[in-house]
Amino acid sequence: MDRLGLAVEVRRTTMMKYFKIFVAIAFSFLLMNDTAIADYLIKDGAGDIKTVKSGSLGNSILPESQLTDPNGVPLLNSVQSIPINLATQGTTQLVGAVNGNSILITSWDVMDGGAETFQLVYGTGSNCVSGQQPLTGPYPMIAQAGIAKGNGTGVILRVPQNNALCAIKSQAVQSSGSVSFIQGAF
């Protein structure tokens, strides 16, 4: 290797070493005080702002493994639960809208007595008739089969402020289950 080639190789190796050090310092800075870019703040039931860990960059908002504040205090455990007991086709309100409040769904389950589609939506007005938006896709259901999401200790779906939570059923068959949630100014 000639002198020019050796000089270029030394310079490239040195630059890579400094780049790796820069990346390590930058990543350490992001994780200072156990706070990462993907962590976020939320108000708890008492109105205090808490840091909620996201687990890793780009992951879901609240994975079940990171449900504590920096002091290890559990956050966002469901405080309310309602039954799903529907037998008619169409849209039915499950949780009513409260002005200025969001609905944070922490778990839900449903089992059907027949073949149909079941979907969670949100909107305003009677039975979410205005501004209706999907929270889930329409799940194809069969008799004596169901679906369950979440365990009541982390947000799996979020209804924006001033909206109600509703269910849409495609057939007049019995649907039974429950929804656990927190409603507040989040």
Summarize the structure.
15% of the residues lie in helices and 40% in strands.
User: Largest sheet at a glance?
Assistant: 5 strands, antiparallel
Number of helices: 1
* Percent strand: 35-45%
Query: Mean pLDDT score, rounded?
Result: 75
Please tell me how large the radius of gyration is. Answer: 24 Å
Class by SSE composition: alpha+beta
Q: Which overall shape is indicated by the principal axes computed on the Cα atoms?
A: globular
- What's the CATH architecture of the domain at 80-184? Sandwich
Tell me what you see in this structure.
With 186 residues, the protein is of the alpha+beta class. It has a domain at 80-184: Jelly Rolls. Helix content is 15%, strand content 40%. It has 1 helix and 12 strands. The strands form 3 sheets. Strands 3, 5, 9, 10 and 12 form a 5-stranded antiparallel β-sheet that branches. Strands 4, 6, 7, 8 and 11 form a 5-stranded antiparallel β-sheet that branches. Strand 6 and strand 7 (130-134) form a beta hairpin.
List keywords for this structure.
globular, five-stranded antiparallel β-sheet, alpha+beta, 1 helix, single chain, 15% helix, Jelly Rolls, 186 residues
